[in-house]
Amino acid sequence: MNLNSKMNKVAIIGAAGKMGSGISLLLLNLMSNMKLKKELPSNSSLVLIDISDEALSGLYQYLRTQMVKLAEKNINFLRETYADRSDLVENGEMIDEFISESLSIIRLTTALEAAKNATMVFEAATENMDIKSTILNNLCSLVDTNCFFYTNTSSIPISTLENIATLKGRIMGFHFYNPPSVQKLVEVIKAQNTRAEVNEFALELGKSLKKILVPSNDVAGFIGNGHFIRDGLYAISEVLRLQNEYTIHGAIHMLNRVSQDLMIRPMGIFQLIDYVGIDVFQLILKVMNQSLNENLQSALIDRYLAKEIKGGQFSNGQQKDGFLKYEKGNPVAVYSIDEDRYISLNEDRIFKIVDEKLYPLADGHSPWKNLLTCSTSDRDQKLNTYFKNLWNQNHLGAKLAKNYLLRSESIGKHLVDSKVANNAEDVNAVLVNGFYHLYGPINNLFPKEKN
Hints:
Layout: E1 9-13, H1 18-36, E2 45-49, H2 53-73, H3 75-81, H4 91-103, E3 106-109, E4 120-123, H5 129-140, E5 148-151, H6 158-165, E6 171-176, E7 185-190, H7 196-208, E8 212-216, H8 224-246, H9 248-262, H10 269-276, H11 278-291, H12 299-306, E9 324-327, E10 330-336, E11 341-344, H13 349-356, H14 368-372, H15 376-391, H16 396-417, H17 424-434
Helix pairs in contact: 1-2, 1-4, 2-4, 5-6, 8-9, 8-16, 9-13, 9-16, 10-11, 11-12
């Protein structure tokens, strides 16, 4: 299926949000390049819809800035494209022309009615079933029966949205990872009745956006959050088990360090929950708990949100305080729900005691950032050596790391056994490409005996 068959009028709902802005940039860049190559009708439009004029103004500035950067990076392409334009000689002139043509595609509005007659819709509203289903229902009366719908939901079953909005096979999950303009992974999720052409177009679009597409079956949470939520709940359960001996803030610090340093991940589990947003974590948790026959809930998450401790990011991308307090992106304190305050890592001796429980690191240990630049074979060899040595250690940090690794693996296998993922390779692909792990949870890097 050709891309231009569905890109005459594209609408993005929630365009100014964290995910919507990235999706807007990706589609604007794609449509702009297609227009330059005469692959798109001259009257094509990208309708960007959100609830706030102020947010849309910020989105416009963001898109303009990013498109300038992309144009500067691809100046050779512009020189070739404008080779027959005698009025465009200097690089700056070509960039200005490209930006002018690109931005002319955009239609900024707070009116959902502006999506009327759209040929394709991307829904990137907040992770709330009622909000998403209401939007999709309203859109149904504005577009014809040939419009394709793609939702960026990270947890809500696509079949549920399809049934509520009576979309009759025209919707599919197209779950970008944050930030969409940078992250390569997209989870693609078909509903039971998704039409073949809707799926075919999604695959073609993902290829054009240069994304790594991993299929997930239509089960709440899908692969990525199916693992992340259970992974986070395990860490929280360990905090509750250790809090009497090490305090709750000490235990949070310990599990965060174990998951980052000893398990060699890009960030600790509580830093990751903060990055996603504690409130978003809870929303996903509720969706999964309602849909699955598991006891997926956390009283500790509820207590933090009751204190308005939410995490997430500011509009400029800086990290908000959550379980941890941040300065220049680095954790400097831990919130104690018992004391109702952030406790500096330099303030309480418990942090020093906790850190001592994590050492010595096993021979062969290298930080995540160092291993990231290694070849795959070299990285796997180093990881294999390190984990074998870790398995021979018996201090508290090593025991926590080994049990956490095994729990992570069992979660991955559960996703395969319960038909969320088609195979172990898809689980590993999501964790490696979406969460930047150096290794998938289902692997042969370490022994399987639990300590």
